[in-house]
Design goal:
- The longest helix has 18 residues.
- The chain has a single domain, classed as TIM Barrel (Alpha-Beta Barrel), CATH 3.20.20.
- It has an eight-stranded mixed β-sheet. A three-stranded antiparallel β-sheet has the order 8-7-10, covered by helices on one side.
- The protein is an alpha/beta fold and 259 residues long.
- The relative contact order is 0.14.
- The structure holds iron/sulfur cluster (SF4).
- The site of iron/sulfur cluster has 9 residues, from loops.
């Protein structure tokens, strides 16, 4: 399948379905994928397909690349709405993630103070205090919650660590005391001959109960946008996503839908 890998530290700006004009920052290798999940829908491909021996970029290289790109954009009169940490895997796995966020806040404040800083994270590294503290400092701390059922988390996200469970995830997400955005990918289909569907009543009612406990400032729900490494997956249609969103809105949550 065609995978999408970012071959630079700073990429874009691109128009993001969820975030607007987004300048991307990739803290992972530029020629492969590095992630603590192995999601069946990952646009970077499955972990076994994306092996790399390339080192992660240094803190200094990230700062320099960001500074250069934002300065060039300022000269052209282009301003990003958001500087987004995403890229070829899980950004919080970078050992200098906390310092890189400090640098990014300083560079942003100096060159484009109106841009937000967003991190798209899979929530696996929240037990690391440095990661938790850094995520608390960014404008949009966007954390993944695809299911409240352990068997579904295993099926959809395939976490590397056996200790990653819904119970762990909920405890970590609660620690932000509402300073977070929840992102949930809804999909259906089949994987390894087994049905998968995280839009069932059991899933949605559990997901809403989890939102009540987590109390996020926003919820982003979305579905498959491009070809996935596991081919037997299907999009959830916009009407169904809107029905799910409406149930969460009735509980007082701000929900955006990208279909
Ligand atoms: S968390 Fe993101 S980068 Fe990692 S496997 Fe899942 S979709 Fe891919």
């Amino acid at each position: 399948m065609p995978t999408i890998l970012f071959d630079q530290i700073v990429f874009g700006p691109i128009h993001s379905r969820r975030l607007g004009v987004s300048l991307g920052v990739n803290l992972l290798p530029v020629d492969g994928k590095l992630c603590s999940f192995d999601c069946i829908y990952c646009e970077c491909g499955l972990n076994k397909e994306g092996r790399t021996r390339t080192k992660l970029p240094t803190r200094e290289a990230v700062r320099e690349a960001l500074e250069q790109k934002l300065s060039a954009m300022r000269e052209e009169g282009v301003r990003p709405d958001v500087i987004t940490f995403a890229g070829n895997g899980e950004p919080t796995m970078h050992p200098q993630f906390g310092q890189i966020i400090e640098d990014t806040i300083e560079v942003r404040n100096r060159i484009c103070p109106k841009a937000k800083i967003a991190v798209l994270s899979n929530s696996t590294m929240l037990h690391k205090q440095e990661v938790f503290d850094a995520l608390n400092k960014v404008d949009d701390n966007i954390l993944k919650l695809d299911s409240v059922l352990d068997k579904r988390i295993q099926q959809l996200n395939a976490p590397n660590s056996p200790s990653f469970t819904f119970e762990y995830l909920l405890e970590q997400l609660k620690r932000f005391k509402g300073n977070l955005i929840i992102q949930t990918m809804f999909l259906k289909g089949e994987v390894d001959g087994e049905k998968t569907d995280n839009t069932t009543e059991e899933e949605i009612s559990g997901w809403i109960e989890a939102l009540k406990v987590i109390s996020p400032k926003q919820v982003m729900i979305y579905t498959i946008d491009r070809e996935t490494p596991v081919h037997s997956l299907q999009k959830v249609n916009k009407e169904e996503l809107e029905r799910i969103a409406d149930r969460a809105r009735k509980e007082g949550f701000e929900v955006t839908v990208s279909a």
